[in-house]
Amino acid sequence: MADGCSRAFFSIGRMSDMWIAQEKLPLGEHIARHVEWLTEHGAGIFNAISLLLSGVITAFTSALLWLNPLALIAIFALLAYYIGDHHARRPADSLRNGPSPDRTGRGRYRSGHIGRR
Question: Where is the stretch described as Disordered (predicted)?
Answer without folding.
Answer: 89-117
